[in-house]
Amino acid sequence: MLTTTWCNRKYICYQGGAYNTNLLPYAAMFGEYFGGGLSSIVFQEIRESRALAYSAFAYYDTPDKLDRSNYTGAFVGTQADKMKDATTAMRQLLVTMPRADKQFEGSRLSLLKQLESERITKARKFFSYLAAKDLGINYDTRKDTYAKVQTMTFDDLANFYQQNISGKNFIIMVMGNRDKLDMEYLKSLGDFKEVTLDEIFGY
Question: Which H or E run includes 114?
C-alpha cells in the first residue's frame, strides 16, 4: 500500500451471491468494457476525462470454491485533495453504467480475441482441471464465455449490471495520511470505523 503523504487509496467492494457458471461471460465482459484496461469506462471517466486519479479500475470477481461468494470490487488511487471527487465519481459509476456502443463493440471483439489466442498448456492443464473440479465443473468454461460473448449486446450486459452491481451497499476502505483526509466527508458516507496501523499490518 502507499506510504506517501500526498495520496491515498480507496477500495470499494460488495459481496454478492454464490458462484454461478452462467455469470462468467458477463463477469468477463464487465471487466473488459467497464473496469479493465486503458479504454474501460472507469479508466476513461475517472482518470482521463476528469484527471481524478493516477489509477482506477473495477471488476466482478467469481470465486474459486462453491461455498464462496462473487465480489464486485473497485479501486481508485488519487491525491488526498481529490478524494471526495474521485469517490463520488466512482460511486456514480457503480449506480449507472454509461453506454458507449462503439466502445462496447471494441471491448467485445477484444475479449473474443483474447479467448481465441489463450492456450492452456503443460502443467496449467492439470491445475485448470483441479480448479474446475472445485467448482463442480468437468469442462473448460471458456467455451461458454466465447459462445455468449459472440452474441452479447450492451443490453445484455446492462441487465447483468442492474441485477448484480447497481445500487448495492458497498464497503468503502480508504488508506492515506489522516491529516490530509477529509474525515468529516468519510464519516458522511455511512457507518464509519477508523483502524490503526497495528490492526492492519500487525505493527
Answer: helix 101-117
Q: Are 174 and 186 in contact (CB under 8 A)?
A: yes
Please state, in angstroms and as integers, the Cα–Cα distance from residue 40 to each residue in 57, 98, 100, 191, following that order. Answer: 8, 11, 10, 31
Rounded-to-integer distance, Cα 34 and Cα 108, Å: 11
What pLDDT digit, counting tens, does each position of 111-127 carry? Answer: 999 999 999 999 999 99
Cα 85 vs. chain centroid, distance in angstroms? 19
Using DSSP, state whether 170 is helix, strand or coil: coil
| CA dist 128 → 85, 122, 123, 135, 139 (Å) | 41, 10, 9, 11, 10
Query: Which residue(s) pair with 178 in the sheet?
Result: none
Across residues 158-178, what is the average pLDDT? 95
CATH topology of domain 7-201: Cytochrome Bc1 Complex; Chain A, domain 1 (3.30.830)
pTM score, whole prediction: 0.90
User: Alpha-carbon Rg of the chain, whole angstroms?
Assistant: 19
C-alpha count within 13 angstroms, C-beta hemisphere, residue 104: 17
